[in-house]
Design a protein that fits this description.
- It is a single chain.
- The chain is an alpha+beta fold.
- It contains ten helices and 32 strands.
- The strands form six sheets. Strands 10, 12, 13, 14, 15, 16, 17, 18, 19, 21, 22 and 31 form a twelve-stranded mixed sheet that branches. Strands 3, 4, 5, 7 and 8 form a five-stranded antiparallel sheet that branches.
- Helix 7 links the parallel strand 18 and strand 19.
- Helix 9 runs antiparallel to helix 10.
- The longest helix has 21 residues.
- It is globular, with a radius of gyration of 26 Å.
Length: about 525
């Protein structure tokens, strides 16, 4: 009997010891869940402790900082920690505050914990969704991502955990070459195409290529394009002495775009209007979408999109993050609700222009019964009805309706529970062909410290089949092409007259197209 009691006492002591972490710490098992279904979610958490009048951020070793790997210091994003699944962490025996969310579609939930007694806790944080994009067919993707200076094991973990925590549906990483420096580009180790071994958290992952040319190490050149949905890499991956360290400045990007399309791939222009070859390739139909704010805040919508749209081009909006995921930046594409999601079906929706880009607010717009990316053909000038909405966790301040580059109506955001909304319903008279879109306008930032943005792709309005073609914007395109041609004539190095003629001929063809 005494032996049995001793045994029970020993077991009891072990159980008590297991409830307390060593060195004045307390064990907390943390799980994020969907408030409606109770299912586990990936997400992020920020853990803080109040010391006097100062709030101190705590970073348990078991959790990766959401700012891991970023080249520039971002204190806001570094304070958030990735919770890919239920995880046990150790915290000091003190009062702490946990704040958590998942992606862009849940509110922030705050939980106060008093851990002073040191007893182990199971903490489940329910996250309330304020929008269910999947039920409407909207699926999100980051179209531009590379990683460097990580081990392969670290890179695998990053690509499995971080996109899921941010609520992405699809992620595109891309092969990238820069002579010498690319020794550390860990994402170059992945094969081209679908990377199913990284899809353990439900995010589909595919590997493509950033095809590019620079005259100098960071100087402007022909430009950069994402080639996604490839079966094999387009060679050369990088062109010119500025990146490849070997002349000539040949071939032009156009040849790589044609190669990608022969593989049923998708071509996305990078970095807004940075580079010389964007307009010639848009005019020739070699591009499928255009990124903005992918890896920085270079340019604006008016710098490229509005000129293109006013000249009569159809340009789907897209975005990504470039080096590491320094933001929520993504593009939502609308698919059929019953359609199977794959990287290829998502890219088809992108090419169709059924998109909006955002790093916070979720947007929608309809003109009569036409949705984003559609063309509404009116038999004659007349009245149309616009309905638009924006919903976001952060205060985006203003929802705006843009017609042919000009704001024609706006609505301030209002707080609803722990998120913000704005809605517009407006009838207007359409007297000429054009386009309509919705965007937000604010100086506020998101939880990761990045300025909020959001813009839908266009709904195109034609009258008896006629599209918009504004002379001032056509003239702007012409000026850009002429300036690019002149700069290339001076800077570009070619081995043969045939190479020179091939490159400059792209700009001559663009000028001819603009004059037709």
């Amino acid at each position: 009997m005494r032996g049995c009691l001793a045994c029970l006492s020993a077991v009891g002591l072990l159980l008590i010891a297991a409830a307390f972490a060593p060195n004045g710490m307390c064990r907390v098992t943390l799980t994020l869940t969907d408030a409606e279904t109770g299912r586990p979610l990936s997400g992020v958490v920020r853990i803080t402790h109040q010391e006097g009048d100062q709030r101190v951020v705590l970073k348990p070793a078991a959790l990766d900082s959401r700012g891991w790997g970023l080249l520039a210091k971002q204190p806001d994003i570094a304070d958030w920690l990735v919770v890919p699944q239920a995880v046990t962490i150790e915290l000091l025996r003190q009062a702490v505050t946990l704040e958590a969310f998942s992606g862009l579609e849940t509110e922030i939930t705050k939980v106060e914990l008093d851990l002073s007694n040191g007893q182990a806790r199971d903490v489940s944080i329910p996250l309330k969704r304020f929008r269910k994009s999947h039920e409407r067919g909207w699926r999100s993707a980051n179209t531009h991502l590379h990683l460097m200076k990580l081990t392969r094991e670290e890179s695998d973990r990053y690509l499995r955990d971080f996109p899921a925590a941010d609520g992405l549906d699809v992620l595109f990483v891309s092969h990238l070459k820069r002579a010498g420096a690319d020794q550390d580009y860990i994402t170059n180790q992945y094969p081209t195409g679908r990377l199913k071994f990284l899809e353990t958290r439900g995010v589909q992952v595919s590997n493509g290529e950033e095809h590019r040319h620079n005259f100098g190490a960071g100087g402007e050149g022909y430009g950069h394009v994402m080639l996604l949905g490839l079966k094999e890499l387009v060679q050369p991956v990088s062109i010119g002495e500025g990146i490849a360290k070997t002349p000539p400045d040949f071939p032009p990007l156009a040849m790589g775009l044609e190669n990608a399309h022969q593989q049923d791939g998708t071509a996305i222009w990078c970095h807004n209007n940075w580079g010389f070859e964007d307009i010639p390739n848009w005019l020739a139909g070699r591009l499928d979408a255009q990124n903005i704010f992918d890896g920085g805040s270079h340019g604006s919508f008016a710098d490229s999109f509005y000129h293109y749209l006013n000249a009569g081009l159809k340009v789907p909006f897209s975005t990504g993050t470039d080096w590491f995921m320094d933001d929520f930046a993504r593009v939502y594409a609308r698919m059929r609700v019953d359609q199977q999601l794959t990287p290829e079906t998502w890219l088809a929706a992108l090419r169709a222009g059924r998109t909006f880009i955002t790093n916070g607010p979720l947007l929608d717009i309809q003109v009569n019964k036409a949705g984003i990316g559609d063309t509404l053909d009116l038999p004659e000038p007349g009245e149309v009805t616009i309905t638009a909405s924006a919903t976001g966790r952060g205060n985006f301040e203003l929802l705006e309706i843009v017609q042919n580059g000009q704001v024609i109506d706006s609505q301030s955001s209002v707080a609803e529970s722990r998120h913000f909304t704005a809605r517009i319903r407006k009838s207007i008279n359409v007297s000429e062909p054009g386009w309509l879109a919705a965007r937000i306008s604010t100086a506020n930032k998101n939880e990761y410290g990045r300025p909020l943005f959001g813009h839908t792709s266009a709904i195109y309005v034609t009258i008896d089949g006629r599209t918009i073609r504004r002379a001032a914007d056509v003239a702007w395109l012409r000026h850009e092409v002429e300036a690019a041609r002149a700069s290339l004539s001076e800077k570009a190095q070619f081995d043969t007259a045939e190479q020179r003629a091939k490159v400059l001929g792209l700009y001559d063809q663009a000028l001819q197209k603009l004059s037709e």
